[in-house]
Write a structure and sequence with these properties.
Elements lengths: L1 H21 L6 H21 L5 H24 L5 H20 L3
């Protein structure tokens, strides 16, 4: 169950990272509230995952899922660069996430 918590925590991290862009410096109430709620849920789920998963592994995967998802949505929603080298670097993060999962004792 810890891996499910960790995956969901990563997805909510994507939500709050993208949400930050839409808060307009925390001047828009709706996006600000949704961003803060996403932050709380993400950290809460990470905390649940950390009950059984190693800290370094869980934190690296949490931030990795957040990073990859945020970059992908940045490209899809915000018109950010999709240069081949940038995508290759994101691919390396995905390989790192998979590697950490494979060698994790849980």
């Amino acid at each position: 169950m810890a891996w499910v918590y960790l995956l969901l925590a990563g997805l909510f991290e994507i939500g709050w990272a993208i949400g930050l862009k839409y808060t307009d410096g925390f001047s828009r109430l709706g996006p600000t509230v949704l961003t803060i709620v996403s932050m709380i849920i993400s950290l809460g789920l990470l905390g649940l995952a950390l009950k059984t998963l190693p800290l370094g592994t869980a934190y690296a995967i949490w931030t990795g899922v957040g990073t990859v998802g945020t970059v992908v949505l940045g490209i899809a929603l915000l018109g950010e660069s999709a240069q081949l080298l940038r995508l290759a670097c994101i691919g390396l993060i995905v390989v790192g996430i998979a590697g950490l999962k494979l060698v994790s004792p849980e």
